[in-house]
Write a structure and sequence with these properties.
By secondary structure, the protein is α/β, with parallel strands linked by helices. It has 8 helices and 8 strands; from the N terminus they run βαβαβαβαββαβαβαα. Helix 2 packs parallel to helix 3.
Length: 217
């Protein structure tokens, strides 16, 4: 079953808990929580206190935390303590990939690795064992509302083939420009099992209908 992970980057921050509860009640499988440090990407978002508050408001929600930061290893324990269920960091970060992945798992959290549009899928292959998720960016990280980059589809196919070759059960997630009527079916056909969508869900006039449209695919 393909899972839907609405990105809070597009939510109404004045009613973040209510927005997230609404999409979860409508059938979304998890909440995608984007963290930006203004260094790895040229934008700032939110961090530990917001995640902790959201986790306290929705203690049973699965928090899919995406760290778009330069030094994720430094913050692993803090994000786990704040409520992260899965922490995904970028293969392009400055920290050791193996050490960061191992630290996430050591704290009892699922580990994921993300790749930017200009990064080949093969860069993740050496680190697949032990991962729960690989996140393929369909846009340049840092800003919402960008158009989907179709190179993500080829990466999804390569990653799915490699996971199947090794017998690994890893979720393949895609983030950026994912729309229910257009790009989402293409991503699923290419191997995606998790769809991250921000504006298509949180900016919809009827969020529950938007979630339902994704779930019908």
């Amino acid at each position: 079953m393909v899972k839907l992970s609405p990105s809070v980057l597009s939510a109404d921050f004045s009613r973040l808990g209510e927005d997230c509860r609404e999409v979860l009640d409508a059938g979304a499988d998890m909440i995608h929580f984007d963290v930006m440090d203004g260094h790895f990407v040229d934008n700032l978002s939110f961090g530990l206190p917001v995640l902790e508050g959201l986790h306290n408001a929705l203690p049973h929600a699965f928090m899919d935390v995406h760290l778009m930061i330069t030094n994720p290893l430094k913050y692993v324990k803090q994000f786990v303590d704040a409520g992260a269920n899965c922490i995904t960091f970028h293969v392009e970060c400055s920290d050791s990939i193996r050490a960061t992945s191992a630290a996430i798992r050591a704290y009892g959290c699922q580990a994921g690795i993300a790749i930017n549009p200009d990064t080949p899928a093969e860069c993740v292959f050496p680190f697949l064992e032990g991962l729960s998720l690989v996140l393929v960016m369909g846009v340049q990280p840092g800003h919402g509302g960008q158009a989907f980059n179709p190179t993500a589809l080829d990466k999804l196919r390569k990653l799915r083939a490699e996971c199947q070759r090794r017998g690994l059960d890893i979720d393949l997630s895609v983030d950026g420009g994912v729309k229910a009527a257009t790009t989402a079916p293409q991503c699923i056909e290419a191997g995606a099992t998790v769809l991250v969508s921000g504006s298509a869900v949180f900016c919809a006039k009827d969020k529950a209908a938007a979630v339902a449209e994704f779930k019908r695919i």
